[in-house]
């Protein structure tokens, strides 16, 4: 037993001796400054201690600089500034959505005390199936020709129903929208709703029919939204983007100022966590939408929470693959868990802001009577106060090349090392080891 231990110790000692000889020769011949004095036979122990102290301090300083450079690259690689070179800018006009939230027929038939779009359900009826509710949802849909009387873009009339297209369920009812990128293809319109140096500003006027058929809906069940082209009208849409102050025979003027966002090409190659935003083409594999937006992500969060709490999805929302629509009894479950389902913090944790898009500052006016507005219409006049004079520009502050240069500079400054210094390691440890005695 003792002989085996002695043999093992001898082998271990031989390996350590061989490794020390290889390391000693490497330190004597490598290009890293100062290390050859640590093993030089011509140096006294005091000299070796001197070089060891300052080599350690130098390596420590190098490590700190490199860690700071890596940290800045990971945490602050992207920044945003503002530009004012607006001569050649071309900015899309906001998307306008007209949404029918509910109907008298739907509320009376199923005794909903609140709007179904708010997930507030309270009904004494029993045994109403999901299919019946989906059929009832059809009663919310009004044909486009019965909603729009006139549409005007920069003093040019056009057919409203050729431009306003139905949106998929977003949780607030049945919507018609124009100039939204959620349509495929979104740029096949005959009218280009853009603002540039030629148009100077944009003016979009819509007249909603307010006759005996639709007056029951407008404005009680109809809301109009002014959104960015990538946004969707959802329950969490801020009130400043919702126009509810409408009156028959009057015109409501909505003024706004737009600030577009421009992204330099290298920004797309950075990680989502680094730039803290997401581009519209960066969708998840199991997403219900072909375009990413914060709103589409929020809808998916809501539906997943509905499935978690109640095992189904409201008939006002799109249903993911493998899920089903709730019946009337299960809608009560949604109402009981409404706060947790629509919790804003759930959306903030899961959904990144958009890297693209336009920030719109909206100013609401009050309905005013005009002689050119018919008594049987409700006019909404959207007008940009001017073309965008400022835009946000997102750019790369620290690229991967900047990180490489910073690390290389630190290695050169503190250690006198270069990339070739690292190739010396396999050279002296493996290629020249045959000369070790």
From TrEMBL:
Main location: membrane
Mode of membrane association: Multi-pass membrane protein
Localisation per UniProt entry: Membrane
Keywords from the named record: Ion channel, Ion transport, Membrane, Sodium, Sodium channel, Sodium transport, Transmembrane, Transmembrane helix, Transport
GO biological process annotation, one example: monoatomic ion transmembrane transport
Segments traversing the membrane: 49-67, 400-423
Entry's family note: Belongs to the amiloride-sensitive sodium channel (TC 1.A.6) family.
PANTHER family recorded: AMILORIDE-SENSITIVE SODIUM CHANNEL-RELATED, PICKPOCKET 13-RELATED
Protein name (Swiss-Prot/TrEMBL): Sodium channel protein Nach
